[in-house]
Each structure stands twice: as structure tokens, then as C-alpha cells.
Amino acid sequence: MQNIRNFSIIAHIDHGKSTLADRMIQLCQQVSDRDFQDQLLDNMDIERERGITIKSQTICLPYTSKDGKKYILNLVDTPGHVDFSYEVSRALSSCEGALLLVDAAQGVEAQTLANLYLAMENNLEIIPVINKIDLPSADPEGVALQIEEDLGLDGALIQQCSAKTGLGVENILEAIVKYIPPPVGDKNAPLQALIFDANYDPFRGTIISVKIINGTVKAGNTIKFMSNNSEYRVEEVGLFRVKRKAVKTLSAGEVGYLLAGVKTVSDTRPGDTITLADNPSAEALEGFKEVQQVVFSSIYPISTDDYEALTTALEKLQLNDAALIFEKDTSAALGFGFRCGFLGLLHLEVIQERLEREFDISLILTVPSVKYNFYLKDTTMLEVDNPAYFPDPMQIDRVEEPYIKATILIPDKYMGALMTLCMERRGDNTNYHYPMPGRIEFTCELPLAEVIYDFYDKLKSITQGYGSFDYELYDYRKSDLVKLDILVNGEIVDALSQLAHRDNARARGLRACERLKEEIPRQMFKIAIQAAIGGTIVARTNISALRKDVTAKCYGGDISRKRKLLEKQKAGKKRMKTVGNVDIPQKAFLAVLKSE
Ligand code: GDP
Ligand code: MG
């Protein structure tokens, strides 16, 4: 155990975690240069394309230090985006130390702070690392000062590197073995293995990532999940090398995986403790905070034939992503689907993309919503995140909506633009101070509903990429909430209904009408599009009727061209939903649902 080091790299998004992980993997020669692919730990296509880490990944690196001692370094790469901080805190629970990476040109950002606090809560030894010192705009001295003075970390521990060129990376490995303590635990005590992640493998069942806190586990053991007492026989235990590598045993202090043919989500809940059935531990380890879904949306397959496939896909995704929740939902316009809960808008987008790419299902998502508390006149309280369940307005006493406390770090010249943005979004109780010269730390209470759409993107654009953002749920406050309906030829399209603050509702209705007008193709009759709040029409537009037969221009032309045109129309039809007598293309739903 003395030669094991379990550590994580934490940082603000884009400060270079994945790149540094790549360099370390190469230095420890886990992959030949020929097989090397950038961002090795970012397995999902979406991660590589967007250049962000979504899921934590673990890798076990053998390392021989300069004084000739052999070590096993377990590196956990963590995501940096606000939506995924629950992944970070889970990953940290498997570690004794963390590298806090700070971009030498950008300095400390909101997520640097947020992640540092998470590491401190987990009592980790922290080694500050200044990355990207190769950049011409790098200011390592200035950043070192921030780290010492603003973060209060030990300046003597600071390492400098360029993850891009590899400069300084070996010194970081030396610092890890020197400053991060080895894990503690008792090999001979009853087994306590902490589940910190789970990934589904179609052939082997769930790959359960564990840190062994106490005891030993090996293939053939019967294990028990302490949350629900279900038992399984262990088929294999192993380490995360670049590929999975089976080993004989996993013992106290080690981080690895466990295969036991588990195919049930509830049996792989991160935070649960695994023990041995015939020599159980008396108590479970302290688990993780329950994740909180804050954004809800319904997902429907474009083609009703895909409903079964969607069900299976969601179940599989949930095995990899315990933060995704879903239940059956139906819509008159879109048929059978699922109401899903997400950690934030990026999480929603990621799930949507994975369903479309990995499972090849075309989808329609309804307008994302937060969860509102409706207090009814009969004094009951109803939680509503779905416009379909908007209570009878006569019965409503009052409605409350969730507020967040946002922490935003920006260069001071963008202060005016930021104030404007926060006021537009119904911000309240703004406060700021200067944690360092030229930089403002701004706090503000905002309705969650106002930030789930595009707040992060807006912030990035008004600050030219220099603003950073973190938030926590704060409280519930009174809201003036209405249900906005969209009608096509007099019929409500339920999938387009949304919950909106009265101040925004009309503008959203107008925008929806315009979007639909652009996207719904002209048909043989006139189509009226309207937006209504509580039965009162607040916006309307018309799509005029189509006069000519589309095949008319082919008369006299060759028959194959005509057939092609008809086929094209048929293919187009498949991506349409019929509401009343109007064909609405998928694109139109998407256009309405997009925020800008
Ligand atoms: P992550 O979001 O923290 O995982 O960051 P990435 O590792 O994906 O890096 C973000 C961007 O910074 C990528 O374009 C990297 O190529 C770049 N980058 C990372 N480290 C360095 C460095 O040391 N020097 C320079 N110039 N660029 C770097
Ligand atoms: Mg990354």
C-alpha cells in the first residue's frame, strides 16, 4: 500500500486536465506512440469533438521514481463543466490527493475555486500546478501569487508545466509520490469497497469502479451491496490500465474494477458500499450526496417504431450515468415518450446526442423546465416540472420557483455587460468584490429557469470567453408563472406547451409562432399558428395555402425524376408529425425549442 498514490486532476474547464493526463500516460509508457490518440481518457465521441470531459475516467500508471522506487499511480480525470460537479466529487472520494491545475494565461477561475473546495471537503493533499507556461501570454509569477494569496495554498508546492510540450511533467510525477500520502486501510478487515462509478458493458454487465477502503476481494467471492443486500458472485477484479487488466485480488488502498454480472441500475449506485456476504462489514461507508436533477424535458422518438429502442437506450445510458432519471410520458401530438431529469442543459444535450449517435434514434425534446412548487387553495403542495400537469388556475394559491446563487468571475471591464445580463434574467441581490486586481467576483441570486437555457453561453460571449460561472441551488421564491400554449389550426400542440414567467411568456409565444411559420412547409390549406396564455391569444401568424401540385413541373419530363421527387417527399414525411391535419416537421419542433 505504501507505493500506491491515488490522485485526481481538478481544474476549470480548458485549463488542460485531459492534456496533462495524456502526457502522464505517455511518460509512464502505457501506450506506444503509434497507438496514441489525443485526449486518451475522453472515450466518448462527444467528448473528443467538444473537447470536454464528461465522465470521470480512471487509469492506473506504473511509475519508477528518480530514486528507483516503483509506484502505482491511480489517476482520475474529472470533468470541468458546472453541470458535472457531482462527477468530480465522486472521483475525489477515491483519492488522497489532487493536482489543482491553473492555466498560466487565464489564472484562477470560478470552477478552480469550486473544485478546490470539493477537494478540501474530501481532505485531499493539494498540489497546485501552473499549466501552459509555453504560451507567450503566460504569467506564471502572477498566477503563483494568486494561488498563494487568494487560494491560500502553499507556494513551495507549486509546480509549473506545459502539458502540451511535456516540460515539467516528470517533476509533477515526483511531487505526487513525495507529497501525496499513500492510502490507509486494513487488508485483513472485512471488505468495504466504495462504488464511485459504473459503466455498462454489453458483454460483461456493469463494470463497477471501486476504491477498496478495507479488506480484500477476489474472483469467486460472493459480494453484497449494503444498500439493498443483493448478492452477486465476483467474476473478475482488475485494474484500469489503458485497457482493463484482470488481477488476482484487489486490496485496501487500491482502485480498480469489479465484474459480477450486475445488470441492475439500483445495484450499482455510486456511493454504495460493497462487502463480502460471508464476512460482512458492520457498517457501510459514508455515501455521496444525492444528485439533484434540475432540468426536465420529455423525449419522444420521431418514429413511433423507435419507442422500444428508446426504452432500451435510456436504460443502458442510466447504467453509465446514475444522474439521468426518466419515467413514461405521453403526448397527444408525439405519442409515447419519457419525461427525463438532468443535471443541467449540457447534461441534457449530451444525453440527446448519445441517444442519437450511439443508438441511432431520432428524437424530439420538449422545452426544458425546472421544477415549480404549486401551493393550492386546499393547502396541498404540488411539484410540477411538466406543463401537462399545470393545475387548474382556479385552484392555485401561489407558485414558487427555484433560485440559485451564482458566483461569476470576470475581468472588471465587463462589469456593465454582466449587470445588464443579470438584470434581464431577473437577478437579485447582486454583490461583488475584487479578489485580485482587475478581476471581479460577482454573486447574484437568479431564477434557475433563467440560467438553464443559454446563460453560460451568453456570459461567455459578453466577456469574450473570460467569464466563468458556478452555481448552487439556493431557495424557492414566489413566481408569476403561466402556461404558454401553441395552437396549430386551433388545436393545442401539447408538446410545444411550456411553463414561463409572465414577463417572458408573450415574447416566447411570438418567437414560437415565427419559428413555426418558417419551418412548417406550406400545405394545401391555410394554417393558423397562435400562442395563448390561459386561453387568451397573445400572438398569431398564418401560413398561406400552397396552390400548385409539386409534381406539376415534372409533367412531360422523365418519369424517374418524378419518382425521385416523390421518394424525397416520402422520406421527408417520416420526419414529420401530424397534428390535426397539419404535418409538422421535426425541424419545426426543434426550432421552437431552441432558445435563441
Ligand atoms: P480540460 O478541459 O481541462 O480537459 O482541457 P484540455 O486538456 O482539453 O485542454 C484544453 C485546450 O488547451 C486544448 O486545446 C489543449 O490543446 C490546450 N492545452 C492544454 N495544455 C496546454 C499547454 O500546456 N500549452 C498550450 N499552449 N496549450 C495547452
Ligand atoms: Mg478534459
UniProtKB/TrEMBL annotation:
Its main location: membrane. It is found in: Cell membrane. Its EC number is 3.6.5.n1. GTP binds at D14, H15, G16, K17, S18, T19, N131, K132, I133, D134. This is Elongation factor 4. It is an enzyme of class 3 (hydrolase). The keyword Nucleotide-binding applies. Gene3D superfamilies: 3.30.70.240, Elongation factor 4, C-terminal domain, Elongation Factor G (Translational Gtpase), domain 3, P-loop containing nucleotide triphosphate hydrolases, Translation factors.
